[in-house]
Write a structure and sequence with these properties.
By secondary structure, this protein is mainly α. The protein has two domains: about 55 residues, no CATH class; about 120 residues, Orthogonal Bundle (Cytochrome Bc1 Complex, Chain D, domain 2). Helices cover about 50% and strands about 0% of the residues. It has nine helices and two strands, in the order αααββαααααα. The protein has a two-stranded antiparallel ribbon with strand order 1-2. The longest helix is centred in the first third of the chain and has 34 residues. It is elongated.
Amino acid sequence: MSSKCESRNPRTERRSEGEARIAIPLLRRAALLRISLFGFVSARGFRLLDFSCRRVFIFLSLLMLATATGACRRDMFQQPFSRPLEASDFFQDNHMASRPLVPYTVARGHLDADEVFYKGKIGTNLVETFPFPITREVLERGRERFDIHCSPCHGRTGEGHGMIVQRGFPPPPSYHIDRLRKAPVGHFFDVITQGYGVMYSYASRVEPADRWAIAAYIRVLQQSQDTSLTQLTPEERQQLEGRK
């Protein structure tokens, strides 16, 4: 006598249980609707026999469909939206989801009325002095920012032999050539802000105060390579000789 073994699929059983859980509330809702319909018809003095079975069935089906699907709208959870700067045909002037800025718009907190501090210029002329006193703390900050943002190309000493240059990038000019030694300090601030040649703008990466700090540190690098012993005090000479 042979015995047959029946295999059970757990996934099929779980699916059947889930469908049953969904079907039971729907059946209850249909039953309540049918009872409500019977009460409405009885209260009005009509009998179901006055209607054809086909019309009653269509009416009940439409009522159940409207009730079952009325709560399935997810507009509040999945609202349509557009990403900033995404292409869109809604606006015909720029074909983008974002609207262009109104001319002469100024962002809150960015009036930038101090032309010397924020542009390094007075009109079209580059400034030759710093807009605030240069202290040791400012120079330390400038050295830190210079080592992070500038030394990969310009090198730690400003000679233009940074690691990126050693790997094939076009070398920048040395800070120690006569042209840059005589350049006004506003030139370095302007180059950091606007970019120059293959160097892109660092305005979005370096704040204005840090740009001035970097410009001050560049002046220190220039003086370190262009200062004679006669310009040093006796104490500074002793200090240098002690390091030797």
